[in-house]
Amino acid sequence: MRDITAVVRVEHPDIVLTKTVAHDRSSTVESVLEAGTDPTSGRFFYRIRSSDFHRFEDGLRSDHTIGEFERVIETGDGEAIYSFEYTDEAKVVSPIVSATNGVVLEMENDGTGWILTVWTPDRKNLAPLWNYAERNGVDIELLRINEYASLGSTDAGLTDSQREALLVALEAGYFEDPRDATLSDVAAELDISQPAASGLLRRGIKRLVVSSLVDDGERPD
Question: How many structural domains does the chain have?
Fold first, then answer.
């Protein structure tokens, strides 16, 4: 088995937050995978950058894919963490990836489209994502794909602790959408603190993303 990391672009007006970022062209959206979300709460966390959060929130109020929302904390320099609840009209592709034991490592807006970095244990597991796109009229494009022998022996530069944390989180359902496990559950399974578990997951995900998207000569230390 050869697991892969694929970079995919998807576009559809019903994909969550699309209308909001079209309203606030200065905004960028990134998912916050390490947030300690209660898997039963239906709340999803994103890191938002915007030159005007009032304009961004005006977009949220008219966005048919978003129900309740909250600006949880402002981190400075035009950046804040928001929590959202999705409506039934929202199209969310991450559950399709999760259903095949994959993980959406990153999600970031690109104009009216979204760039997804997806890890999956087998190339054929991408097929349900393409099937979903075809059934729902979602434009989808494969931008890049990297193939590894396995997550256990990947050359992504993961430490043993990062690899273990990612595998434990995957098995526990931490990457499901909605989640089947909290950060606290993952930390308990690893027998470490929540901040330590969050750090391992965050750094492990970063290493996987860098190994997929950045040329060797450009990689950070």
Answer: 1
123-134: buried (b, 16+ CB within 10 Å) or exposed (e) per residue? eebbeebeebbe
Q: What is the pLDDT of residues 21-58, one digit of tens each?
A: 999 999 999 877 655 444 445 788 888 999 999 999 99
Helices then strands, each counted (H, E), the chain? 7, 8
Domain that holds residue 60: 1-221
Distances 64 to 16, 74, 91, 112, 115 between C-alpha atoms, Å: 9, 25, 11, 15, 21
> 107's torsion region: left (phi>0), alpha (psi -120 to 50) or beta?
beta
**Claim: this prediction has a pTM higher than 0.70:** no
Tell me the three state secondary structure of residue 152. helix
Distance CA 132, CA 145 (A): 19
Question: How far is Cα 170 from Cα 166, in angstroms, rounded to an integer?
Answer: 6
